[in-house]
Amino acid sequence: MIREIVRDPFFLCRKSEPATKQDRAVMQDLLDTIRANADHCVGMAANMIGVRKTILVAQIGDTYQLMVNPKIVDHSAQCYEAEEGCLSLAGQRKTNRYAVIVVEYLDRNFKHRRQTFRDFTAQIIQHEMDHFEGILI
After folding, report:
1. From 46's CA, which of 10, 17, 23, 81 has a CA 20 to 30 Å away?
2. What are the residue ranges spanned by the domains of the chain?
3. What is the C-alpha separation between 65 and 134, in angstroms, rounded?
4. Any catalytic annotation for residue 104?
5. How confident is the model over 27-38, as pLDDT tens digits?
6. CA distance 137 to 132
7. Which of 17, 81, 83, 128 is catalytic?
8. Assessment of whether the complete model's pTM goes beyond 0.90
9. SS3 35
10. How do residues 102-129 score in pLDDT, each as one tens digit?
11. What gap in Å lies between CA 117 and CA 58, rounded to an integer?
12. Could you tell me the CATH superfamily of domain 9-132?
C-alpha cells in the first residue's frame, strides 16, 4: 500500500525501534511508497511513512534493497561533505558521510546479510539510518 509521506519534524525526531517479522506489511508499504516516488526519491526509512521501525529501502542500480535492523559495523576513515535533500523535509542540507560502509542487516526473509557499500549507495543508506536515530538531514 502506498503511504503518505510524514513531514512532521516532531514525529521524525523520535528514535525508531527494532523491526520484527510482524512488520512484514511495513516492508511492502515501504517498497510500494518508494516506487510511487521513484522520480524524486532513492531511499526511504519506515518513519517516513509513519512507522517508527528500523527498516529502510534503498535504490541500488535498477533495484530496491530492503534492510531490516541494519547496523554499520565498519567504515572507511575517508569522509566527504555531501548536500542532501529528503522527501520529508524541504530544501538541501550539508552533512558528512563515510565513503565506504559495511552493513549487517536482515533481508526481507529475515536472513542475516553483511555487505559493503560505496559512494552514493553508502550515502543513501547512512541518510536513511540517520532517520532511525531521529536525525534530520
Report:
1. 81
2. 9-132
3. 22
4. no
5. 999 999 999 999
6. 12
7. 128
8. yes
9. helix
10. 999 999 999 999 999 999 999 999 999 9
11. 11
12. Peptide deformylase (3.90.45.10)
